[in-house]
Amino acid sequence: MNSVSLPAARAASHSNAMSTSRLIGVYLAEARSECIRYMRAPAFMVPIMLLPTMFYLLFGVVMAKSEGADAARYLLVSYGVFGVMSPGLFGFGVSLALERDGGLLTYKRALPMPPGAYLLGKMLMAMAAAAVVIVLLLIMGLALGHLALSVQQMGLLLLTGTLGVLPFCALGMLVGTLIKGQGAPGMLNLIYLPMSFLSGLWVPITMLPKVLQQFAPIWPSYHLHQIGLVAVGLQHGGVLEHVAVLLGFAAAFFIAAVRRLRRYG
Amino acid sequence: MHTQSDVVARLCGVVKRYGSLTALDGVDLVLQRGELLAVLGPNGAGKSTSISLLLGLIQPDQGRAELFGMDPVQIDARRRIGVMLQSAMLPLTLRVGELLRLVSSYYPDPRPLEESAALAGVSDLLKRPYGKLSGGQQRRVQFALALCGRPELLFLDEPTVGMDIDARRKLWAAMRALVAEGCSIVLTTHYLEEAEALAQRVVVMAKGRVLSDGSVDALRAQVPLTQIRCVTDMDAGVISNWPHVAGAERDGSRIRISTSAAENVLRRLLDADASLSELEVQRASLADAFTALTDETIEQEAA
For B230-285, what is each residue's pLDDT tens digit? Predict the structure, then answer.
């Protein structure tokens, strides 16, 4: 079999470049599919929506009636952060783990899909789910908890939640590249639940033992919680430091995950 | 008119190892434009590894894989191919039309959605969620996704598994139509009759090597035996001692004779038994050739 025809073969390969508008179309189509696909999957959406809303209803509305407006606001932020973490960790992490296992990722890598479109699609899906969680909690708080928040504060909290999901997307992505298939949800719960507790999302951080309080800043959820508290006006001072920490977490997880994906698919 | 520039895909002296296992051991393969190539081989022969290399999913340890003269990792090379993999769990909640629109968006100049659907015979399924389809319908949808980008080269890995005969024949017809358009196809299959019905060229692989590469007839000719079957009272042991007879055995009232010179044996057979009936003469099938070829290698390996 002769194999000396490289230059000729190259000459024949005509340009197959994508126009910019078609390339943008790929990103849009991928994001759209990813959103539709999960919004239609109750097994995915129901736990993400139900867990934080049930917690908030129980601890933030029913049991906190006597505690005053500040407690209700504080708990709104806590359960908001708790609710925002799960679309990131599970939406990104579990779906990646399952798609690596089921062959969808291999299929998409064989297709001419820009890898960025795949990741961006999942990211936007997680951001949309996070926004829905925050909006649900706000509606509950306003309707049942007699929450006093300005429109600006609500907007800031929504923004915090929607962008705050990103470091958890990166963490979920990293776990999704480390664990294949059905093992991922268990592993992610082992991260999700202790991290929520240790960063003061279930019980206020001041009620945790001293040692745990000191270690709280190592968790990304702690920093998101702090930003959320500033957003609703319960805390004053700079958020830049927390934003920088979260960006650092996101970048570190993302880079580690991309490396693993490159090497192992 | 196969000039050198008509090469669409190529493996050059490719070696691929997984730990101590050598999946491909120096494989050369060239695919010309408009050619339908069937890759056959037992499990573990290296078919999937070869395809994965050409799709840029894995890298060769030695040698080179090329699509249109480019590294398959380059997205520009892959914009000219369509793919149907053996096991790909597509999103179950997306409708067929949504899947088609999504995959079409990856390509610079895709077919109109209706055309892709019609070619693959899924026009009536466009509104159905993928997860609600039968296995055969899902395969047809995957085929539609493979051809929607107007590819110049199509990789089909076991495309007709789980399809009934009718669906399989429709898919064969669609594949022939694509080849007529100038599309090249690489087909791996377990169904030898599929290769026989479609392929201009057949590559047989085993143990990570290419055992044979040529037309269906050339492959068949590697086993020069013809089967003769008939109802007769004659003794199989006697016939097996005749010249040109490779073997003869009795199967109920019938005798089955393998021979390399069917005409001579037939003449003698008809002379010897005037009451002979239900005569059948059959050339070696592709399956016989395939079995003979792969058995031989496996025996050599064992020795």
Answer: 998 888 888 888 888 888 888 888 888 888 888 888 898 888 888 888 998 887 77
How far is it, in rounded angstroms, from Cα A33 to Cα B41?
A: 37
What does pTM read for this prediction? 0.82
Q: pLDDT band at A264, cuts 50/70/90?
A: low
Query: What pLDDT, in 10s, does the model give residues B103-125?
Result: 999 999 999 999 999 999 999 99
Domain B4-220 is of which CATH architecture?
3-Layer(aba) Sandwich (3.40)
Q: Can you give the residue ranges of every domain in chain A?
A: 20-264
Nearest to A3 among B12, B98, B99 (CB): B12
User: The tokens 């592993």 sit on which residue?
Assistant: A187
With CB atoms and an 8 Å threshold, state whether B55 touches A12. Answer: no
For residue A18, what are its two tokens? Answer: 């994508």
Reduced to 3 states (helix: H, G, I; strand: E, B; else coil), residue B156 is strand
By Cβ distance, the residue of A5, A30, A99 closest to B102 is A30
Please tell me the class of the B224-283 domain: alpha beta
Q: Where are the domains of chain B?
A: 4-220, 224-283
Q: Is A43 near chain B, with CB under 8 Å?
A: no
Separation CA B212–CA B192 (nearest Å): 15
